[in-house]
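Structure request: dolichyl-phosphate beta-D-mannosyltransferase, Gordonia mangrovi.
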Amino acid sequence: MALGEPAAGDERPAESADAAASGVVGKRGERALVVIPTFNERENLPVIVGRLHVALPGSHVLVVDDSSPDGTGEVADGLAAEDADGRIHVLHRTEKDGLGKAYLAGFAWGLDREYATIIEMDADGSHAPEQLHRLLDAVNAGADLVIGSRYVPGGRLVNWPRHRELLSRGANTYARLALGARVHDITAGFRAYRREVLDKIELDTVESAGYCFQIDLAWRAVRAGFDVREVPITFTEREIGESKMSGGVMTEAFLMVARWGLQSRLERFGRRSR
Ligand SMILES: Nc1nc2c(ncn2[C@@H]2O[C@H](COP(=O)(O)OP(=O)(O)O[C@H]3O[C@H](CO)[C@@H](O)[C@H](O)[C@@H]3O)[C@@H](O)[C@H]2O)c(=O)[nH]1
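Returned structure:
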C-alpha cells in the first residue's frame, strides 16, 4: 500500500511552480491527482493507469478500492510498488459503500496534499485518459469545474447499450428540469475540479452515496457561483467487467434530486417573500 506523504520524486517541478500556486496544472499533469474508484476492476485497472501515465506522465493516481472480492486492491498495491516515481497511491476501504463515498474519501486524501486539480475518472476505460488534456486546458483557461460531456456538440457515445443511453439522457433531463442547472451531462463521471471548489462546497454535508453524487457536486458548484464548463468527450462502453449501476442507485438519485429541487424552490420563494 502506498499511503502517506507523496514519495521522493514528487517535488514540485520548477517550471510548474507558478501554475501550482495559481491552481492550475502543468502540461504533463503535474499537481493533478486522478482519483479512480474501483470495485472489481482487476483487469481494467493496470490498463487505465498505464494509459494515464502515457497521457499525463506527471500526474498522480489515487485508487480508492472498496475491498473488491476479485483482488483489485492487491493489483493496485502491486502497481504502486512497481512505480519508481511514487505516482500511484491506494486507499483501501473495508466494504462496498458506493461511488460517492469512495470519491469523498479520495477527495479528502487529495485535499490534505498539495494537488492543484483533482480529477474523477472511471477505471473501466469508459473515459479516455488521452482526452484529459481537454479538461485540464479548460481548467488552465479559468474554469473551476470541467465536466467531460457526452451531450454537448462533439460529445460521443461508443457501444453504450441503448437502454443505458436512454436512462442517462432521461436522468440528465430530469435533473435539469428539477434543479434548473444548465449542465447537459450532470451525471458524468469524468471531471476536473480546481481544488478551491472542493474546499468550498462543504463536502462534510454530502449525503449522496451512489452515482447521484455526481449531480450533487455539480449542483453545489453551480450554486456556489463557480465557473462550471463542459467539454466534449467520447464515452466508450467497458469491454471487461460489469457496471455497478443498480435499482438502489437509481432510486437514490430520483429521490435526492427531487429533494434538492424542492429545497431550492423553497429557498427562492423565501427570498422573494422577504
Ligand atoms: N470504490 C468503489 N468504486 C465503485 C463503486 N461503485 C462503482 N465503482 C467504480 O466506479 C466506476 C464507475 O462505475 P460503473 O458501474 O462502471 O459506472 P457506469 O455504469 O459505467 O456509469 C457511468 O455512468 C454513470 C451515470 O452517468 C456515471 O455516474 C459514472 O461515472 C459512469 O460514467 C468504476 O471504476 C467502478 O469500479 C463503489 O461502491 N465503490
